[in-house]
Design brief:
Elements (H helix, E strand, L loop, with lengths): L35 H7 L4 E6 L2 H14 L3 E9 L2 H15 L1 E3 L1 H8 L2
Helix pairs in contact: 2-3
């Protein structure tokens, strides 16, 4: 299977800035094989908010790695998807490794 040349292009709505740190994943999770942990630690980050397209693959893998790396993890449950597996991850897996919240709750908590 070959990918289209623009397969990794981000949509304009994200308004990516030159100073934004982009992580190119090579595995389901965002920590393995990337500089994400080093980048976050260099900025003294202790908590991460995770969203994503595939609840039971990318989101769960990244959440597990973040937890294993010692971060305080918050999973924004209405900003992720995968219909059947989504509910299982939210109800059975996530409570063991993280807090959960909605987008509105996350934005409210971050608007200090």
């Amino acid at each position: 299977m070959s990918l289209l040349p623009d397969w990794a292009d981000l949509i304009p709505d994200l308004d990516v800035k030159p100073t934004d740190h982009l992580v190119i994943k090579h595995r389901p999770g965002a920590f393995i094989g990337t500089d994400l942990d080093a980048y976050l630690r260099s900025r003294n980050v202790t908590q991460v908010f995770i969203t994503g397209i595939s609840t039971s693959v990318g989101v769960e893998s990244t959440a597990r790695s973040a937890y294993d790396h010692g971060y305080n993890v918050v999973l924004v449950t209405d900003a992720m998807t995968t219909p059947d597996a989504h509910r299982h991850s939210i109800d059975s897996v996530f409570p063991r490794i993280a807090e959960t919240c909605t987008t509105a709750q996350a934005l409210s908590a971050l608007s200090c």
